Amino acid sequence: MSTLHVIDHPMIQHKLTIMRDKETPSSVFRQLLYEISLMMGYEVTRDFPLQDVEVETPLEVATLKKIAGKKVAIVPILRAGLGMVDGLRELIPVARVGFIGLYRDETTHQPVPYYCKLPKGMEHRMCILTDPMLATGGSACDAIDLVKKTGCKDIRLMCLVAAPEGVRKVQETHPDVDIYVAAVDRELNSNCYILPGLGDAGDRIFGTI
Ligand code: PRP
Ligand code: URA
Predict the structure, then answer these.
(1) Which residue's CA lies nearest to atom 13 of ligand 1?
(2) Ligand closest in space to the Cα of 198
(3) How much distance in Å is there from the Cα of 173 to the middle of ligand 1?
(4) Pseudo-torsion of CA 198, 171, 190, 84, nearest 10°?
(5) Cα distance between residue 75 and residue 128, in whole Å
(6) How do the pLDDT tens digits run along the chain, 209 residues long?
(7) Ligand number, closest to the Cα atom of 200
(8) From ligand 2's centre to the CA of 198, what distance in Å?
(9) What are the structural domain ranges in the chain?
(10) In this structure, are residues 126 and 70 in contact, taking their beta carbons and an 8 Å threshold?
(11) CATH number for the domain running over 4-206
């Protein structure tokens, strides 16, 4: 069974509460999503392997630690996942970026694929899939399927807010994928929106309300 990591640091909870407020404008919403993504990135990369390196400080030669050449792909699920990319790239500047385009059909709530472009060498990379909202879990599961087809073995799903239904679906369908979220909310409404949630993340990021 995959692990659900709830990253409930006070700074993250505070910023997320501001994001949930319907009066928060798009520019502030985007900035807070950037900041939270950077902070969540610390937990998503917590198990990165380190290697010893020799460094000459101004005072002496010391044996110190550096990341041991981990290759990373950041893959946002379009559109809303784009809002989490810059924060992660700030943390991992050498990461390659791919894109998966999926939208939810408004009546069936099923994901409809429209784009997939992933970096070369995915089989040797750790992939961080990003999407602020994990609702029914349909979009995340289909995106994970697409990444797995490349031979990628280390996939982590990073979301902002999840519904229990979505967490369950990803854990049952992809037990090898760990999930990182800032909050698990109460439930889905009859339109498959997360309650209390924050509304439509894509619309709030891109001002298309
Ligand atoms: C939203 C969200 C997820 C998906 C979650 O995207 O960003 O991708 O819904 O729902 P699910 O877990 O039930 O699949 P949406 O389809 O609204 O597309 P957008 O990001 O382009 O607005
Ligand atoms: N997608 C969103 O953007 N918000 C939700 O609450 C559910 C799906």
Answers:
(1) 136
(2) 2
(3) 18
(4) 20
(5) 6
(6) 789 999 999 999 999 999 999 999 999 999 999 999 999 999 999 999 999 999 999 999 999 999 998 799 999 999 999 999 999 999 999 999 999 999 999 899 999 999 999 999 999 999 999 999 999 999 999 999 999 999 999 999 999 999 999 999 999 999 999 999 999 999 999 999 999 999 999 999 999 98
(7) 2
(8) 8
(9) 4-206
(10) yes
(11) 3.40.50.2020
